[in-house]
Structure formats: C-alpha cells, structure tokens
Amino acid sequence: MHPTPPYHFDLTAGFATFFQGRYGGDIFEEGILHKLLDVNGHLCLSRVHSLGTVAAPELEVELTGPILNNSVLDAARQQIAWILGIEQDLTGFYRLVKEDDALASLAEAMRGLHIPHVASIYEALVLAILGQQISSHVAQVLRTLLIERYGQSLDIDGVLYRSFPRPDALASAGVDGLHALGFSVRKSEYIWEISRQVTSGTLDLEGLRARSDEEVAQALIALRGVGPWTVHWLFIRAFGRTDGFPYGDLALCRIMGQLFNAGTPFTPEQALDYSRRWSPYRSYVTAYLFAAKRSGYAFPSV
DNA sequence: GGCCAGGTTCGCT
DNA sequence: AGCGAACATGGC
Questions:
Q1: End-to-end Cα separation, chain A, in angstroms
Q2: What is the pTM of this model?
Q3: Is A284 in contact with A115 (CB distance < 8 Å)?
Q4: Where in chain A is the domain with CATH 1.10.340.30?
Q5: Of A39, A91, A129, A177, which is least packed with CB atoms within 10 Å of its CB?
Q6: Chain C positions with a protein C-beta closer than 7 Å
Q7: Which CATH architecture has domain A121-225?
C-alpha cells in the first residue's frame, strides 16, 4: 500500500491509538498496528507496519481471519486505507501554514501526520459522546470496558483481539447495561437510543456521507447527545472532511490561547473567529494541534 | 477533599 | 436568548 507522501506511519497510527499502546481493541506496539476489522460482518485481523519512509511511504498489510474470500480481503484493505488516511494530500494545508510561524514549525515537527479515520460513523458517534466532558484517561477506560464487554472478539494464535461493538449489541445492552459500565444514565440513554435507531434502520448514518456539511449537521444535531462539537469532531475523524472545527472544545481553546493569545485561553467565539483564516483546512490544524499537545510538544508563546 | 476534564441537555429567568 | 446545574469518574 502506497500512501500519498509525505506520510508518517508512526505518528498517524499513534494518533489513531491515542498514544502508542493499547486503545480499546487496537494495539500499536513496536511499529505494528494490530486492529480487528469488522468487514461486512466478517471479522478480520489486520497487522500493518511501515516498509518505507516519510518521503517514500509504503505499508505492508497482513490480513488473517476465518473467512477470507477476495471480496472480504478487498473490503478490508479499503477499510485500512481509510482508517490510516493514506489518500490524504497535505500540500494545501502545508502551504497554508507557512504563513504562520507557530503553525509552520509545528507542522514541520509532525510532518507526514495524516488524520486517521474511524471505521464507521456509528463508532465515531458513540466514541464522541463517550468522550464528552470527561478526561481523556477516563474516556479510555470507558472505551475499553465497552469494547471488552460488548465488542466482537476473535482468537488468533491464542491472542484475543476485539473490535468495536455492533449497534445491535449496544441496543440490546440497554441503558442499564451501559450504565453498569460507568456511563452516566444520560450518556447511556444517548448511546442506546442511537444504537436502536441504527439497528432498526430508522437512522442511516453511513448514508450521510453523500450529503453536504449542512445536511449532515442538521441530521446529527437532531439526535440527543449530539451538539456542534460532536458534529465537527465527526467531520474530522469520521467523514474525512477537511474543514471541521470543534466549536467549544476546551482543550483547543487553551492550546490556541497559548499560541495566539499570550497564554490566555480563547473563548469558543474567539477560537472560531480566529480559525476562519485556516479554512478550508481547519480539520488538519485541529488534528495537528491535538497531536502536538498529546506528544508533549512545547508550544511557543506569542 | 475540591476541582476539573477534548459537551450537551434541561429547567429556570 | 442566555445562564447554571447535572451528569460520573479518575487524577492532581
């Protein structure tokens, strides 16, 4: 597999798994990403590692599973390509940030980071609601519990791999089942309601891919538990749109305040106003700022 | 122990 | 419209 250069596999896979290590069902260790895919109902373990360089990237993908016909293999490869964002072209974004010293050095430090995508809109939506207003550490604990309790699993050579729960699993878990894991009753209700609608076919999340930003936002905000922050997070991580900007994100307001406001956090309005100069590449700016924060990058102050 | 975390809803002026 | 509380939990 040949990603569009520049492509930094470790940074991109590390972003997808939050830090190197375990992330719910996903494992990224020693340069190898292990991820159990759920491809049209077929479980398929993928192992991905890099053979190339940032400038000349190449990925090797190994697929293992009980039922691997050509169509499953094909779909699995496509899913990996999507998850790892290999087709993204960063040149427009890099050209844009040259105008800004702080962003330019940050982009240079993270050169080749593509935005990893979540496999399905449903998974991204549940994860976004799960992560609202709780620390990333707590979110990681809850996510792992959710996947271990309700996800699919596959034993390969004595190792149990897991994938994200299917909508019907969370629908039948019920509000009580989710609450028992440590979710608030309210979050349990949100996730349960969405899972039920997806299971019954009332809600076609994947069908939203063909719609405009405005139509997607309208459809998603109609769901309980989904506000503007969640919609934009999904634009970035699930729809692969380039101009998402999570309005009201506390951490983002702080990072942007460090970079552009002498250390004083931006208000959500200030952050949104400031972000307009990055359009239509705000998804990349957002991802790079978060990636930098996670990696301990020392943000230069104004 | 108090306060806060990569929000959203709900009920009150 | 706009404001504050509630939500649930782990870490500092």
A1: 41
A2: 0.95
A3: yes
A4: 121-225
A5: A91
A6: 7-11
A7: Orthogonal Bundle (1.10)
